[in-house]
């Protein structure tokens, strides 16, 4: 069974940095698009950043210039470097990946369990 596991969340003061990690494991043939989403209390889940298998990235307007997404295809891993954090960045951050499992003919989207990021003012 394929799963995604996030790590690296925590409590940080405004202006600080955190680095989130996402590791995919299981019977994986290939991973296409990977992404980070976040959901703050009482708000809808929003896209933070995406990265294609070839490394093309895209960011939500609220994090451009502060967050950097990266991945290592050989390790089935992805990271989110978050700098100059603001209280509005407080949310549960979720890892998402479009994965083709071994012996499967199509991709399916898989979510991690989430990791809490709290930014104090």
Any key phrases for this structure?
single chain, 121 residues, mainly beta, 7-stranded mixed sheet, 4-stranded antiparallel sheet, 11 strands, 0% helix
Overview of this structure, please?
This protein is mainly beta and 121 residues long. Helices cover 0% and strands 60% of the residues. It contains no helices and eleven strands. It has strands at 3-7, 10-13, 18-25, 28-39, 46-51, 57-59, 67-72, 77-82, 91-101, 107-111, 115-120. Strands 2, 4, 5, 6, 9, 10 and 11 form a seven-stranded mixed sheet that branches. Strands 1-3-8-7 form a four-stranded antiparallel sheet, with no helix packed on it. A hairpin with a 5-residue loop joins strand 5 (46-51) and strand 6 (57-59). It is elongated and about 50 Å long. The termini are far apart. The relative contact order is 0.33. The model has no long low-confidence stretch (mean pLDDT 97).
Task: Output mean pLDDT.
Answer: 97
Radius of gyration of CA atoms, rounded to a whole number: 14 Å
Helix content: under 10%
What percent strand?
Answer: over 45%
Category from helices, strands and their pairing: mainly beta
* Succession of helices and strands: EEEEEEEEEEE
């Amino acid at each position: 069974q394929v799963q995604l596991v996030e790590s690296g969340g925590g409590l940080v003061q405004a202006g600080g940095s955190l680095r989130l990690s996402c590791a995919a494991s299981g019977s994986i043939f290939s991973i296409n698009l990977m992404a980070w989403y976040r959901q703050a209390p009482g708000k809808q889940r929003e896209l933070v950043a995406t990265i294609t298998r070839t490394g093309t990235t895209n960011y939500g307007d609220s994090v451009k210039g502060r967050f950097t997404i990266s991945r290592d295809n050989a390790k089935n891993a992805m990271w989110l470097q978050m700098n100059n954090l603001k209280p509005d960045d407080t949310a549960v951050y979720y890892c998402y990946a479009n994965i083709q499992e071994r012996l499967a003919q199509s991709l399916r989207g898989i979510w991690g369990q989430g990791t809490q990021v709290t930014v104090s003012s």
